[in-house]
Amino acid sequence: MIRRDTPVLRWLSLVAAFLFMEFPFPDWLSAPRPFLLALVVAYWILETPQKMGLGRVFLIGLLLDLVNFSMLGEHALRLLLIGGILHLMRSRFHFYLAWQQSGFLMLILYADLVVLWLMRLSQGLPMEQAEIWGSPILALLIWPWLYIFLDNLRVQSRGR
After folding, report:
1. Within 13 Å, how many C-alpha atoms sit on residue 19's CB side?
2. Measuring CA to CA, which residue among 65, 67, 105 is closest to residue 83?
3. 10 contact partners, CB below 8 Å, separation of at least 6
4. How far is it, in rounded angstroms, from Cα 32 to Cα 68?
5. How far apart, in Å, are the Cα atoms of 1 and each of 47, 92, 96, 113, 155?
């Protein structure tokens, strides 16, 4: 099925995920919060790789760094690594079942947390709460539903 590009939906979903990342949650709920922005970026990389290139992914990460007042390039590097892996695996990724895709994304997000841990360790900064290591498991549960939701929105916008 040939799908028309939906830039408004793409950017609205990225803004919504960005706001979710910035919305204040209680401490007990903030640590295991999934990296939703990475999941939305992953969806758009898989569906429109020509429109969601690594340059845009890097700029989205830099914007998140600026808003969070975190080390400049921290989120940019993390999103760039996730995006690069997905760009390399994109052609095979569509052949996986939803639970296999979720598992693969969970492994990528665990690798992302290891990169975050190494960056913080090299700066002498403490790692966030231990509950952060549960966030990829939540991402594993969210991915199939997020993929279906964004895909349905995309199909509906095609009819307009």
Report:
1. 6
2. 105
3. 44, 48, 51, 52
4. 17
5. 12, 17, 18, 36, 10
Q: Is the dihedral of CA 105, 111, 115, 116 positive or negative?
A: positive
User: Per the structure block, which two tokens stand in for 95?
Assistant: 């052949």
pTM above 0.70, yes or no: yes
Tens digits of residue pLDDT in 25-46: 777 777 778 889 999 999 999 9
State CA 9 to chain mean position distance.
Answer: 16
Cβ contacts of residue 104 below 8 Å, gap of 6+? 89, 93, 96
Extents of the domains making up the chain: 7-158
Both tokens of residue 68? 């969070």
